Automatic annotation (TrEMBL):
<dbReference type="InterPro" id="IPR023896">
    <property type="entry name" value="LTA_DltD"/>
</dbReference>
<dbReference type="GO" id="GO:0005886">
    <property type="term" value="C:plasma membrane"/>
</dbReference>
<comment type="pathway">
    <text>Cell wall biogenesis; lipoteichoic acid biosynthesis.</text>
</comment>
<keyword id="KW-1003">Cell membrane</keyword>
<dbReference type="Pfam" id="PF04914">
    <property type="entry name" value="DltD"/>
</dbReference>
<keyword id="KW-1133">Transmembrane helix</keyword>
<keyword id="KW-0472">Membrane</keyword>
<keyword id="KW-0812">Transmembrane</keyword>
<dbReference type="InterPro" id="IPR006998">
    <property type="entry name" value="DltD"/>
</dbReference>
<protein>
    <recommendedName>
        <fullName>Protein DltD</fullName>
    </recommendedName>
</protein>
<comment type="similarity">
    <text>Belongs to the DltD family.</text>
</comment>
<dbReference type="GO" id="GO:0070395">
    <property type="term" value="P:lipoteichoic acid biosynthetic process"/>
</dbReference>
<feature type="transmembrane region" description="Helical">
    <location>
        <begin position="7"/>
        <end position="31"/>
    </location>
</feature>
Length: 425
């Protein structure tokens, strides 16, 4: 055997393997659409890879799932969670949960814009947490965990630098550590932020090459590693009665809440209290006296989501969640401040034509409405589920008269004192 053959014998398999990888990542190979069982698991998985990608979400919309966006409250799978109730009582739809701890408006904007025209004329539910609206806005590390280059490239491909919304989105993404980490993406975003079209090279290298590769990876790999919560949901629904009856279920929720909040005076779930609060309770007294949800970039990030809904003729139901009133009294969080936050977010919604709102911000005093300090619990989820069901049963409006204002992208709005706003009604 001559040296050439020996050399080929050593490196030939490596070359072949490399070619196979290139064919898999850039070639015309497809696994087909995810099957119904994969979609069902994904709907309650809250897996970050599902949020980052596009194929599973787009197919879920085709299958009639109701996109339900929020943050950590979505993972509180008690017996009265909408995902449990829609499994027990046939409604003609199932929620597809998008969000976990750290997901806020900016994440949901980049996630929904990946769905493209599959979002057209759909209904969605958006669960708004007051805690999103802290002065600094979303934490870059939290945003980065749910971010993908595929999202950024999809945005760059469809961005119009002449639109205020797209220039603002580019600016916000550049401020995120993950969004500015790739030099190619960073350069394209800087041009969009400046009101300029991306270059031909940026389009080719990002959209045609990197974008194709990332779509292929999403198609090949996203469906794997999805957390399976179906056994948990099956366990939860076994205790539900065969027929849906709201007063009966509400009494069950009261009994569940009473049973599971027996070791503290805050009506907080025993397990949460033991793990998160008991040892540090004394240090938390009056610790939230200076908290405010009245100012910051989250208001403009939220406007991106509204712009996306207008673009695709989406009808959203917004659920504004409360805070546990007993916990507020202990930590010094101001109800008056929470009321002002509520006035500001309602003003932003209603003055632009978004009128489907379930405003629960004052319901934190209802026993067993909350599961812990800030998350919906037994009776809270039951009320949310009833409103979602009524929302979906209504005829879809033929015309959604949204009248968006670029003012809501300005620092002036972010810093606007809600005391100076008229009532939104």
């Amino acid at each position: 055997m001559n040296n050439g053959k020996k050399l080929f014998g050593l490196i030939g398999p490596m070359i072949t393997a490399g070619l196979l990888v290139l064919l898999v990542l850039f070639g015309p190979f497809h696994l087909g659409t995810p099957d119904a069982q994969t979609e069902k698991r994904a709907a309650t998985s809250l897996s970050a890879n599902v949020l980052r990608g596009d194929q599973i979400k787009r197919n879920a919309l085709d299958r009639g799932y109701l996109m339900m966006m929020g943050s950590s409250e979505l993972s509180r799978f008690d017996t009265f969670h909408p995902s449990v109730l829609t499994e027990k009582y046939p409604r003609g739809y199932h929620p597809f949960l998008l969000g976990e701890a750290g997901t806020q408006s900016l994440t949901h904007f980049f996630s929904t814009q990946m769905m493209g025209n599959k979002l057209d004329h759909k209904r969605v539910v958006v669960v708004i947490s007051p805690q999103w609206f802290v002065k600094e806005g979303v934490e870059p590390e939290a945003f980065g965990f749910y971010y993908s280059k595929q999202q950024a490239i999809n945005f760059i491909n469809h961005a119009n630098p002449q639109r205020v919304s797209d220039r603002y989105a580019a600016q916000r993404l550049l401020k995120m550590t993950a969004g500015s980490a790739d030099p190619g993406i960073q350069g394209a975003l800087q041009r969009i932020k400046a009101g300029k079209e991306i270059t031909a090279w940026q389009y080719f290298s990002l959209v045609k090459v990197s974008g194709a590769n990332l779509r292929q990876q999403d198609q090949l790999f996203t469906r794997f590693g999805i957390m399976n919560r179906e056994p948990l949901l099956e366990h939860r629904l076994r205790s539900l009665p065969d027929d849906y009856n709201y007063p009966v279920l509400d009494q069950m929720a009261i009994a569940y809440g009473r049973e599971h909040t027996s070791n503290n005076d805050f009506m907080i779930h025993n397990r949460f209290y033991n793990r998160k609060i008991r040892k540090i309770k004394n240090s938390l007294k009056d610790s939230q006296k200076g908290f405010s949800y009245e100012y910051g970039p989250e208001y403009s990030d939220f406007q991106l989501l509204l712009t996306q809904f207008k673009k695709h003729h989406v009808q959203p139901l917004f659920v504004i969640t409360p805070v546990n009133s007993r916990w507020m009294a202990y930590t010094g969080l101001s109800q008056a401040m929470l009321n002002r936050f509520d006035r500001k977010i309602n003003y932003q919604l209603q003055t632009q034509g978004f009128n489907q709102i379930l405003d629960l911000h004052q319901q934190g005093k209802i026993p067993y409405f909350m599961q812990d300090t800030i998350h919906l619990g037994w009776r809270g989820w039951l009320q949310v589920d009833r409103r979602i069901h009524n929302f979906v049963q209504q005829p879809m409006p033929k015309n959604l008269n949204y009248q968006l204002r670029d003012y809501f992208y300005t620092k002036s709005w972010q810093q606007h004192n809600p005391r100076n706003l008229p009532n939104a009604e």
